[in-house]
User: Fold these one by one.
Assistant:
Number 1:
Amino acid sequence: MNGAPAREPHWAAQKERGSFALMWLTALAVRRLGRRPLTPVLYLVVLYFFVFGRRARRNVRQYQSRLAAWSGRDELRPTTRRVFGQFMAFAESLLDRLDVWRGKLGMAQVQLHDPAGVRERLRASVHGGRGQILVCTHLGNLDVCRALAELEERVPLNVLVHNRHVAQFNRLQSAAGDRQLRLLQVSEMDAALMLDLSQRLDRGEWLAIAGDRVPLHDGRRVVVDFLGHAAAFPQGPWLMAGLLRCPVNLMCCLKIDGRYQIRLEPFLDTAEWERGGREATIARWAQRYADRLARLCLLAPQQWFNFYAYWQLADEGGSDADPRRAAR
């Protein structure tokens, strides 16, 4: 034995701690009783996960340490209070998520940061334009972005996910009062999937996919530098954009000073690569995205809701050495 820590299972392969029945009861309770009575219960649940979730605590501490070192901001270095604060921020986001599903949170409660006019392109697609891709992140609250896309603009938004619990989440959201969101399970980017997605874009629908979650198939990833260390990022969003010849925009929603701020910005006007240069081009795009994500983390440092070992590489070496080898 070499004394090295045991490697954690892939995030998508980890068994959910809570059952769907418990999530369904929580959604039903919020719908019937409102948010305020449920808040103390949810905070107790989060406290339980904080106390007994040694692995999650370690991973949050690692993220906070690397963000502080990369940015040079000592005030971001992890303490027990700061680590717990990230768990509590997640609990708050869950309550806000239920509000969105119930239609209780709309644009009146959300600020929009959109200097390049991405929102206008969203609107145009409803009236005959072609859809585009929104690359999202687990920084902040993804569901609050619905206040812009589905609830306000009535833009058909297809959310592509890698996990196998799509049916459960669809049932949960329906129980909470939401019947508009389209969750599409994506396991392989085969010809049938590409044809389906292309047709959705032609109908003016938009595609949303996370840019910071690697799927189970390790071949669909690229190693880039993130906060000064090597991390595996998915190829999926960039491969999809190139195959569909579709522009890419970035979207995230951060809670700043008690109010959500949706941030929209263009990322790729034309997603294409030269013959033989696909891998190198995708690596450059992924590195650009990782650099931008790192900057966004500084706007809301405790709203990074990835609780697994983010910098644990899936290759045999698992080393942080040579972090930009795939992005050259």
Number 2:
Amino acid sequence: MVARMHNRFAVQTMVMACMAQLDLDAVVYPTSNLPPVKLGSPRGPEINGRAGDGVWRFLGANGFPAITVPVGFTTVMYDRIRVVATPESDVSSEGSETQIVGPVAARLPVGMDIVARPFGEPTILKIAAAYEAATGHREPPADFGPLSGAELSAP
């Protein structure tokens, strides 16, 4: 736990120093630079000990609030399938590997992340709300239906 807290403190110190030096209240970046995969697909291989958890999880685990907002739609998707090792294949003999197939035509949402300094939730909520209001990129599912005042009020 001590090592984890030291790492967290180091990450927070570096990120907050950069944000202060650049006079930033928040940072915006794409949620992913890869097209989405089909739900339920096998996970991809680990790269440098990570399985594609992304910046959002990394920053969130280190105390930085983050939110994702819709920015539009992609036109393709990729799928990952299991490939069983055979003597003729280049796949390792450990059983199975995965392979990416596609692109397949699809209309899937794409997002951007907004992250702020620790306890900066009000800042990212204001930015996210203003962005969504200005762009209108959010599209509810066709069968979702309109929201009435009752669903929008606090419990």
Number 3:
Amino acid sequence: MRTDQSRIRRVILVAVVLVLAASGTTLGLLLTQSSTPVAQVAQLASVQTACKQWLSTNPGQPGTVQWCSEMSDWMSRYMDRYGMGPQMMWGDPNHMLSTCERWMAETPPSGSKTTSRVWCGSMVAWMSAHIGSWSGHDNWGDWMTHGPMMG
């Protein structure tokens, strides 16, 4: 009888240790992986803000602020689907231009009567010229290395 109780205690102790180890490992993985998506969300918000500011200062441009939301939503889904990081999506003006054009080609915004080259080119040119107003940094490289995506 005594040995049965000892075995039961050992089994319970082993089970508790395994559950704690699995919980610790899972928590560690979640904490490690969660830092990137939060940072990406912050930087996507900056891109969306820049797009909206560009449209508000250029009322003659085709499109609406809804396009800015659609573009950033598409970027988020694209990064999740293909495992791309911010550097490849908008790491510099050329990447931002390519990403915007890809968005317009794959999922044209509602009511679009402009070419992706014209719309995206104008937006990226404005973003580059006015980076301080929407990012709080002096240049694109500074925004990417010290902006909201870096915490």
Number 4:
Amino acid sequence: MIVRTHRNSGFRGFTLLEVMIAMAILATTLVVVFQSQSQSVSMAGRARFETTASLLAQSKVSEIEATSPEKVVSDSGDFGDDFPDYSWQVDVTETELESLKKIEVKVVNERLTSNNSFRLVLYRFAVY
């Protein structure tokens, strides 16, 4: 009479412990990959804001430079339908030198909740 045991029956497979370890490794790897992807998207959005805001601030500075010095005053507004989420503010202040004005241009993205402003400072002689 031949008695066959299950240990030597030739069935092979993964144990529950091996499956659990593989799942833990897979879960850890996926968390790292998704976190990296999220950080990459966040950095791309920040770079897009910095680029757009700096170009918009520079265009506002160009408008100010094209205006005669005595007509440059503090003001605010938006960039119209082309950039609906962006607004600008110009602050003109006096300096220690009578003929030198400090002009600060601030561009803000209203949609972003943090790190949503870009500031550009210009000094201009106002000789009358």
